[in-house]
Amino acid sequence: MSSQREAVSAMLSDLVDLWRARHGTPVARFDVTADGRHVSGAVLTRAQAGEIAMRLPDDVSLNLQILEDRSEVPPLGWMRPVGALAPLYRGADLGRLTTEVLGTDGAVRALEREGGAVLVQADDDTLGWALATDLTVADAGKTEVLVDGERIPAQTDTIVRLWDAARPFVEARTPYVLGGRSDGRADCSGLVSLVFRRATGAILPRHSMDQRRLGERASRAEARPGDLIFARLGDTNIPHVGLLLPGDRGLDIVHASQRAGHAVRQPEAEFLEGYRFMAVRRVLGDV
Amino acid sequence: MDPLMVVCPECGEDVELPEDVEEGEIVECDNCGAELDVTSLDPPEVMLFEEDEK
Q1: Which of helix, strand or coil describes residue A91?
Q2: What count of other Cβ atoms lies within 10 Å of the Cβ of residue A22?
């Protein structure tokens, strides 16, 4: 092990001890390269990432996921209290009460799990650990996500409305019919155009390759909920389009699937078993 | 890293591909708007995308 790696690892370990003393259970994962010149991983807060950056030598690069970043998909998805409320505690030992989340508050971001506890971020950004059995998975499209223009990014609201509009197609397994654009039948671009029309009022072009010209390019790594993903059907050059939404791990795609024969919601990796990636377009801008 | 440069088969202009482009991705020619199918990254090559009938 290089001496630089040892020094960087020791610095990170000291910081985690400091956070443990300050905040209770720390949430931090690090990977330091063998030469000690690159640190990657995840921390809970932007302030923690700043503390690390300040202490690192200039020649060490840093790439950290910040779990409390609301512009990102929650690492464990959205959750809500099973009953009227869920107490939130300072640490994963569930010893000291921090606050309570009410069932009527809407969904909270689930960030980390440790034993029988789940770390969540409430809508006022309070962080706390809840008993896992006090929470249930709230679908990314739950209407009970609290919409408060000042405190919840509009993106959340938009994604909720997109799923609200798409959900009936998925639940009804609306048949894939080329040329369809109605509740009873839809092709891929027809489904996307109907969902966007109902969720945002936007009028999208009818055909997938015209939809591909909308908005801005994003790489697959940059793709986020609300973007459109374009792909080819199997080995053909038949274009296909789907809508990206938050998944349990990574992104889900809602689309009218020729393969399945109906509307589906499936993880991106599963989607790409039947379709070959072609493009991601950000049509919503900074929503 | 050197930029990934190709020549648009439609208009003949130089096109710089995004540095994180993938093989199989469809990009547009900034000059003429042609849809370019990235068939190779090393060396960078494109062809006009031709849509199959559904």
Answers
A1: coil
A2: 8
What is the least distance, in Å, from the CA of A233 to any CA of chain B? Answer: 10
Q: Which amino acid is at B16?
A: E
- Are A79 and A100 in contact by the 8 Å Cβ rule? The answer is no
The residue with greater pLDDT, B47 or A204, is B47
Helix (H) or strand (E) holding B48: strand B44-48
As a whole number of angstroms, the distance between CA A75 and CA A94 comes to 21
CB A236 within 8 A of CB B50: no
Q: Return the pLDDT at B3.
A: 86
How many residues comprise chain B?
A: 54
pLDDT at site A70: 76
Least confident of A126-135, A149-158, A258-267: A149-158
Burial A112-133 (b: 16+ CB within 10 A, else e): beeeebbbbbbbeeebbbbebe
| Amino acid at the residue A219 | S
Q: How confident is the model at residue A144 (pLDDT cuts 50, 70, 90)?
A: very low
**B43 interfaces chain A, CB cutoff of 8 Å:** no
Round to whole Å and give the CA distance between A34 and A125. 36
Residues written for chain A: 287
At residue A22, φ and ψ (nearest 5 deg) are -85, -40
B51–A238 CB contact, under 8 Å: yes
- Residue A197 has φ and ψ, to the nearest 5°, of -60, -45
Residue position matching structure tokens 């900034």 = B30
Q: Is residue B54 less than 8 Å (CB to CB) from chain A?
A: yes
Contacts of A240 (CB under 8 A, 6+ apart): A188, A208, A230, A231, A232, A233, A255, A258, A275
How many whole angstroms separate alpha carbon A157 and alpha carbon A142? 10
- Which residues in chain A have Cβ-Cβ distances shorter than 8 Å to B51? 209, 237-239
Taking each helix axis as running N to C, give the angle between helix A3-23 and helix A46-55, from 0 to 180 degrees, rounded to the nearest 10: 140
**Which of chain B's residues have a Cβ under 8 Å away from the Cβ of A209?**
35, 51
